[in-house]
TrEMBL record, chain A:
Domain OTU residue range list: 194-408
A GO term, aspect molecular function: cysteine-type deubiquitinase activity
Reactions listed under catalytic activity: Thiol-dependent hydrolysis of ester, thioester, amide, peptide and isopeptide bonds formed by the C-terminal Gly of ubiquitin (a 76-residue protein attached to proteins as an intracellular targeting signal)
Family according to the record: Belongs to the peptidase C65 family.
One GO biological process term: proteolysis
GO cellular component, one term: nucleus
EC number of this enzyme: 3.4.19.12
This protein's UniProt keywords: Hydrolase, Protease, Thiol protease, Ubl conjugation pathway
Protein name: ubiquitinyl hydrolase 1
Compositional bias per record (Low complexity), positions renumbered to this chain: 72-84
From TrEMBL, chain B:
EC number: 2.3.2.23
Gene3D superfamilies named in the record: Ubiquitin Conjugating Enzyme
Protein family per UniProt: Belongs to the ubiquitin-conjugating enzyme family.
Superkingdom per UniProt: Eukaryota
Organism encoding this protein: Leersia perrieri
Keyword Coiled coil: no
Any one GO BP annotation for this protein: peroxisome organization
Residues covered by the UBC core domain: 57-207
Protein name as catalogued: E2 ubiquitin-conjugating enzyme
Length: 408, 231
């Protein structure tokens, strides 16, 4: 229990010290999330009526912060949506793009607002009840949206968590009317890779891609020494979390589910499974989410264990502390992954990962090439041997989304 | 199936979730062989088994939390967590209002309604005791706290959620109000107004009615104490 205390004390201390920062961060995260929610599913119920003299909250709240968020959103939206054609191949990117309009609408109203109380406004309480209220409504959405709707509604016409293997030509077909740079890059990809497996764009795509790719690799190679190696690493991760003050029962189930999967892809046991069953399990909501959560715990633990190393990356990214970052952007389901997460997971488990970037960069020089980055675990490079190993997990990155690639 | 399921939960509680995996996968296997000719039904069964698996994990996790709560009963005198006798997915908590706040001296009751997919999904928590706080809905008791919504992760426990709620009581966030009247008082700088309103409701709703003036520092009502001992 004392460990919880420590956790909470830390949390309290941060709250006290960085209140402004935290609320800024919340707004930031809330903003992003709201975008996702508003399009992906029927949003939350409107703000329930407040105790007294309260007119109904406006659904499109006009105030200053919204305008700023709208600007952010449109920037992000444009960024993410640019290289993608109309069909929502990447749920996230598409979701990010659409609500832009919604928000801008809200921001547009700002001009008419006599009291754009973006936090500093303060006074004018009696006059601007509806403004304040609508603001409440706004935050109500951001802060009190339904948690993970994906978890509640696993069935539907959506892409499965992990799709079927498909030839790379389907990717080319998808970009047929897209940017010529991307078409060129897909051609180049085709020289090295021949197949693709899509994952659902629910913010967990990196972890699910990694999960399936890794387990499939073990299933195909039956590499017992690799399994023994990763089991040792997992044991270390467990200790890391305990040392950080996590209570063991909060994460042990997630660990044991992953270890179960690991053991069952090794053949020769009563519980051994084949490729088909592996796919089925990765598509099973419970198993899949538990494994994703296992990776999230491992990633969070690694980032916090080497806080000094990760701190500059994180403060550059989000302007938050390492612990805040882990609590807000690593541990919760559905939080998207970035370089930081990949480095941490790759290091923690000692598994090298290659990421191919399908974006519009490097188009100025004339000779187009597909950028890639190899995440080589730190420990491996010192142990030698493994360092020379080419990553056997290759992911295809398009802004905001990861899929699995299969080399020729 | 439901009889079988009860059995599963029983096993989980005593052998932990790994046992459950083996067990439920064997259920799934029988389901598969039984209904080989009826694919849809087979799928339904498999799905049900998977769902029960999730529920089993939720129950197992809650049971661990229950044991922890029993073991550390005295560790945190500000929080009493009580599990419903017949349903491990329903809990009640009694928390003490933090000192140096208008809630000091009050005992607030929280209702936990825990989804089957816990701990992947957060518990639903609301105040049963009326409270005047910017981030608590005045009528429904709904709490606006990010960790109960989109910032939830399984690293939190019912106990740490209670702590977070106590922290929220001490550090209201008037910029994201669920109770706008309360939020507006704080936002307009009327700290005294906020405190006296909050204090009034604490006295009205969160303190023993008769002796709230005499024995203000009585931690819990006797009735409540009994409930704790029983639960």
């Amino acid at each position: 229990m004392s460990s919880t205390l420590i956790q909470i004390e830390r949390w309290r201390a941060y709250l006290r010290e960085n209140r402004a920062l935290i609320s800024h961060l919340r707004r930031d995260l809330g903003g992003r999330r709201r975008e996702k929610r508003k399009t992906s599913t029927e949003p939350n119920p409107p703000l329930p009526p407040s105790p007294s003299r309260t007119p109904e909250p406006e659904p499109n709240p006009p105030h200053a912060k919204l305008a700023r968020e709208a600007a952010d959103a449109s920037a992000a939206g444009a960024d993410a949506a640019a290289p993608v054609p109309e069909e929502a191949v990447m749920g996230e990117a598409a979701a990010a793009a659409a609500p832009e309009a919604l928000l801008v609408e809200g921001g547009g109203g700002e001009g008419m607002n006599p009291n754009p109380s973006g936090g500093g406004g303060g006074g004018g309480c009696s006059e601007s009840v509806s403004v304040e209220l609508s603001m409440g409504g706004d935050y109500y959405h951001s802060c009190c949206g339904d948690a993970d709707l994906d978890l509640r509604a696993p069935e539907g016409p959506k892409l499965p968590y992990v799709g079927d293997k498909e030839p790379l030509s389907t990717l080319a077909a998808e970009f047929q009317s897209g940017s010529p740079i991307l078409q060129e890059k897909i051609k180049l990809l085709g020289e090295q890779y021949d197949a693709l497996r899509r994952t659902r764009g629910d913010g967990n795509c990196f972890y699910r891609s990694f999960m399936f790719s890794y387990l499939e690799h073990i299933l195909e190679t039956q590499d017992k020494s690799e399994v023994d190696r990763i089991l040792k690493k997992i044991e270390q991760c467990k200790r890391t979390l305990v040392d950080l003050g996590y209570i063991e029962f909060t994460f042990e189930d997630f660990f044991s589910i992953f270890i179960d999967q690991l053991e069952s892809v090794l053949q020769g046991h009563e519980t051994s499974i084949g490729a088909e069953e592996l796919l089925e399990r990765t598509r099973d909501q419970m198993v899949s989410d538990y494994v994703v959560m296992f990776f999230r715990f491992v990633t969070s633990g690694e980032i916090q264990r080497r806080a000094e190393f990760f701190e500059p990356f994180i403060s550059g990214l989000t302007n938050s502390t390492v612990v805040q970052f882990c609590k807000a952007s690593v541990e919760p389901m559905g939080e998207e992954s970035d370089h930081v997460h990949i480095i941490a997971l790759s290091d923690a488990l000692g598994v090298p990962i290659r990421v191919m970037y399908l974006d519009r960069s490097s188009c100025d020089a004339g000779n187009i090439s597909v950028n890639h980055h190899d995440f080589i675990p730190e420990a491996n490079s010192s142990e030698g041997g493994a360092a020379a190993e080419k990553p056997y997990i290759t992911l295809l990155y398009r802004p905001g989304h990861y899929d699995i690639l299969y080399p020729k | 199936m439901s009889h079988l399921f009860n059995h599963v939960v029983f096993l989980v509680i005593f052998h932990g979730p790994r046992m459950l995996v083996v067990f439920t996968f064997s259920i799934r296997a029988t389901a598969l062989s039984d209904d080989a000719t009826f694919p849809t039904q087979r799928r339904d069964r498999a799905h049900e088994a998977a769902r029960n698996l999730g529920r089993g994990f939720g129950a197992a996790r809650l049971f661990k939390e229950y044991k922890e709560v029993q073991r550390e009963k005295s560790a945190d005198p500000d929080i009493q967590l009580i599990c419903d006798d017949s349903n491990i997915f329903k809990w009640t908590a009694l928390i003490k209002g933090p000192s140096e706040t208008p809630f000091e001296g009050g005992v607030f009751q929280l209702a936990f309604n825990i989804p089957e997919q816990y701990p992947l999904l957060p518990p639903q928590v609301r105040f049963l005791t009326k409270i005047f706080h910017p981030n608590v809905h005045f009528k429904t008791g709904e709490i606006c706290l990010d960790i109960l919504k989109n910032a939830w992760s399984p690293a939190w426990t019912l106990q740490s959620v209670c702590r977070a709620i106590i922290a929220l009581m001490a550090h209201p966030e008037p910029d994201s109000p669920l109770n706008c009247d309360s939020g507006n008082l704080l936002r307009s700088g009327d700290i005294r107004g906020y405190q006296s309103m909050a204090r009034m409701y604490t006295r009205l709703a969160a303190m023993p009615k008769k002796d709230n003036l005499v024995k203000r520092d009585t931690p819990f009502l006797p009735v409540v104490k009994e409930a704790v001992a029983g639960g």
